[in-house]
């Protein structure tokens, strides 16, 4: 098994990852009902994001945490949902890639997910 080496690898990764997310009804409603994502537009954005994060290319300029706070304002992104998201992400990486970048992308997903959850907890607290 190879490591993640280029944007084609990242495209395969996010494509397989979203197949898992969208076929798991405990989380798919966020992508189909709460926000109606268009996969053909969404997947290239994910590739740009991860390419910047682990391949060192540029190009991603959106505020990722704010985007997820906006989703959370519509439908609560619970710690349980983050666990499900991360599990599917880890499994997709491990089923397709092995190596330093594969480890790095999992670690990054966990740290970004942790920061998002802290901000979400703050946002939930502000509502009380
Ligand atoms: C419970 C966990 C999560 C859920 C349910 C979720 C859901 C979503 C949804 C619905 C969107 C589309 C938002 C929109 O276009 O308005 C989105 C965008 C995105 N998500 Fe997540 N997300 C989760 C966690 C994460 C994590 C941990 C990461 C990264 C480590 C991540 C990376 C991204 C990226 C890169 C985008 C594209 C943002 C853009 O359009 O610039 N997500 N997510």
From TrEMBL:
Entry-linked Gene3D superfamilies: Globins (1.10.490.10)
InterPro entries, sorted: Globin-like_sf, Globin/Proto
The name under which this protein is listed is Group III truncated hemoglobin
Q: Which organism is it from?
A: Flavobacterium cheonhonense
**What lineage, starting at the top, does this entry show?**
Bacteria, Pseudomonadati, Bacteroidota, Flavobacteriia, Flavobacteriales
